Amino acid sequence: MESRSRLSIICSHLLPDSPSPTSRLSSSITSSASINDAAGDTRNHQLDCVFCRIVRGESPAFKLYEDETCLCILDSSPLSPGHSLIIPKSHFSCLEATPPSVVAAMCSKVPSIGNAIMKANGSDSFNLLVNNGAAAGQVIFHTHIHIIPRKARDCLWTTEVCIVCLLLDCIVEQHSSILRETLDQ
Q1: Could you tell me if 93 and 181 lie in one domain?
Q2: Catalytic residue set
Q3: Which of 38, 72, 78, 100 has a beta carbon 3.0–4.6 Å from 83's, enabling a disulfide?
Q4: Could you tell me if 146 and 166 lie in one domain?
Q5: Which CDD domains match (predicted)?
Q6: Where residue 9 sits, what CATH number does that domain have?
Q7: Hey, what long-range contacts does 110-114 have (CB within 8 A, 24 or more apart)?
Q8: Residue 161 lies in domain
Q9: What secondary structure does DSSP assign to 50-104, as a single string?
């Protein structure tokens, strides 16, 4: 129930005059993705692409924002509550293949969407992330931008966990030294 409440808050901040968030669960065709007929492989990839299916209304997703160029949806495997993706409605497999005007349109939505997400879930920061290419961790080969809400000391990234562990190790070592000195007296 808490996630539905957060979703309602996010949606009300992004689209205040629109229907409830559950009606935004895409289950019918709402728009069509542009499909390049010039290359059969590209067409097949676009037909199989999960984001293209979402844009065409063939796969469900919680839509937070939509315009003629891009769509913002909740990530189906979030790293934190409110983790969202901004995707172009046209299929581009990587950032290099995405026209600058489309990248600009996607990026121009980040401040308003990011602020609405932070307000909705009480976070104070967010990471903006693009995994571009297989070596960088891109799994879905359709350009997309992650907005990952963050809270202080959430230890989302392993480097943050290591820093916390190092700090704890230092504290334990200091207390151990004090205890040894006290016991030696």
Answers
A1: no
A2: 144
A3: 78
A4: no
A5: HINT_subgroup
A6: 3.30.428.10
A7: 110/86, 110/145, 110/147, 112/14, 113/14, 113/64, 113/65, 113/72, 113/84, 113/86, 113/147, 114/147
A8: 155-185
A9: HHHHHHHTSS--BEEEE-SSEEEEE-SS-SSTT-EEEEESS--SSGGGS-HHHHH
CA–CA dist 54, 32 (Å, integer): 10
Same structural domain, 93 and 82: yes
Per-residue pLDDT of 71-91, as tens digits, reads 999 999 999 999 999 999 999
Q: What is the pLDDT of residues 90-130, one digit of tens each?
A: 999 999 999 999 999 999 999 999 999 999 999 999 999 99
- Predicted TM-score of the model (pTM): 0.68
> How does pLDDT run across 150-165, given as a tens digit for each residue?
988 787 776 666 555 6
SS3 of 45, please?
helix
SS3 13: helix
Same domain, 55 and 116: yes
